[in-house]
Design brief:
By secondary structure, the protein is α+β, with helices and mostly antiparallel strands. It contains three helices and three strands. A three-stranded mixed β-sheet has the order 1-2-3, with no helix packed on it. It is globular and about 40 Å long.
């Protein structure tokens, strides 16, 4: 929050639907989620599948209990040929 070039918004996590409403109105480039306790993979997976990024979206899940960060990058790309898919795989 002390970084002047970052615009930060805070939302208390209630459920995926609430977060999606906030995301749809803000169009963030990065979402940071703090998960206290054990990982909630089904909830994180549902959120990742339902968010539609403007271009590229990064979701960072922070678990303060074990200092682990999980980073997910999501893109929506239109593929017109097999070559497009091959290029995406090679440019990881």
């Amino acid at each position: 929050m002390r970084e002047p070039e970052l615009q930060v918004a805070s939302v208390t996590y209630a459920d995926p639907t609430t977060i999606l409403k906030e995301v749809e109105s803000a169009y963030p480039d990065v979402i940071v989620i703090s998960e206290a306790g054990p990982p909630d993979l089904p909830q994180t997976s549902e959120l990742l599948h339902r968010i539609l990024p403007q271009e590229i979206l990064r979701v960072i899940v922070i678990r303060p209990d074990d200092n682990i960060l999980e980073v997910y990058d999501k893109q929506c790309l239109k593929v017109t040929s097999n070559d497009d898919l091959i290029a995406l795989i090679k440019n990881r």
